[in-house]
Amino acid sequence: TGNPSGFDLQGRDEMTDAFKEIGETIKLIDPTFKNELKTEVSLHSDNASFALEGIPTLQIIGNLDPDVYKYYHSNKDNFDLVNKDHMKYTSAVLSIALYELANLNDIDAKQLNSDQTRDFYENAGLKEKMIIGKEWKW
Questions:
Q1: pLDDT tens digit string along 100-131?
Q2: CA–CA distance, 98 with 95 (Å, rounded to integer)
């Protein structure tokens, strides 16, 4: 719901070219879309359970309204805080991205096997953090 400006590919660099192109398609429709790309590996997101199984994931880069941050993911976080215009824009951006993904001939990002997933997180420098958080399964 955070007014998208791009995509964070969660460390899966092999998705960069596809999402650069997808972002350019979005810019054709909305020239104000910034087409930002990040590839930072993170933990504790809504998609972490998929990423821990080696499944490529991504997140939207965007900004929430300032008032939302003091309640974000707390017991005071409720639907009244959602900016409806941002929600509509997020839905449009994601719809275009999904359409473009569905029409790719090939997607470079494949599911990693267990050893590759372990190496992915180790190479990202997250092994110790994941051991402490009891998320390291290898």
A1: 999 999 888 999 999 999 999 999 999 999 99
A2: 5
pLDDT tens digits, residue range 55-69? 999 999 998 888 788
Contact indicator for 41, 120 with CB cutoff of 8 Å: yes
Bridge partners of 59, per DSSP, are 8
Residue indicated by tokens 């976080």: 77
Cβ atoms within 10 Å, residue 72: 11
What pTM was estimated for this model as a whole? Answer: 0.87
Q: Which residues make Cβ contacts (< 8 Å) with residue 82, sequence separation at least 6?
A: 1
Cα 62 from Cα 116, distance rounded (Å): 30
Residue 66 CB neighbours (<10 A): 7
